[in-house]
Amino acid sequence: MEQKRVIEVKKNILAANDAAADAFRAARAAEGTFFVDEMASPGAGKTTLLLAVIKELRARGVEKLGVIEADLESDVDALKIKEAGVPSVELNTRGVCHVEMNMVDMAFAAFAGQQFEYLFLENIGNLVCPADFDTGAHTRIMLLSVPEGWDKVMKYPPMFAAVDALIVTKCDYLPLNPDFDMARLHEEARRLNPRLEIFETSARTGEGIPALVDWLQAQRAAKVQG
């Protein structure tokens, strides 16, 4: 009788990815680089929020900034970051719906030894796959825009459970979306993740950006050297 074997492929892939992520995280912390993984669905405002955060960090005297822009194709967002005067590497995944550590390693190598105080990864626009893959970040944040609706927290719970902070974006649209239940969003998100920090922001008006940057700077002070 032929014996059957079950191979846990996903478990093995994630274990190897996690080991590489731990090594990357430790190396960046030792050199003073705070690495942030930013995740959201397409159109939530990831690049726009990054530009607002970069502007606020610069106003506070931070200049050593870098961004890894992950997309299925194109370099549209990477060019926006470069136009703002920030080093950026475009990471095209060619159809892969998430970013893995081998991709992060290759993108980071493309900076050719540049030193950063803050390095951001704009992950693939997706609220499913990126939650499973550790990218070596010191903190993970996710965006949810007001036009998307508050109920995404009930539809994509693994993402909300995996991150350190939820950034509600495009809050200037709240008057146009009376069905957006901010209180219910807070309640459901914290039920999934009691330690979750929540920021209500608008990159257009600047609402919430200083508080978010305060938190990022506190996270950096706690997690990296220098």
Automatic annotation (TrEMBL):
One of its GO terms (biological process) is protein maturation. Pfam families: cobW. Keywords: GTP-binding, Hydrolase, Metal-binding, Nickel, Nucleotide-binding, Zinc. Residues 42-199 form the CobW/HypB/UreG nucleotide-binding domain. InterPro entries: CobW/HypB/UreG_nucleotide-bd, Hyd_mat_HypB, P-loop_NTPase. The keyword Zinc-finger does not apply. One of its GO terms (molecular function) is nickel cation binding. It comes from the Bacteria. The keyword Zinc applies. PANTHER family: HYDROGENASE MATURATION FACTOR HYPB, HYDROGENASE PROTEIN ASSEMBLY PROTEIN, NICKEL CHAPERONE. Belongs to the SIMIBI class G3E GTPase family. HypB/HupM subfamily. This is Hydrogenase nickel incorporation protein HypB. It comes from Parvibacter caecicola.
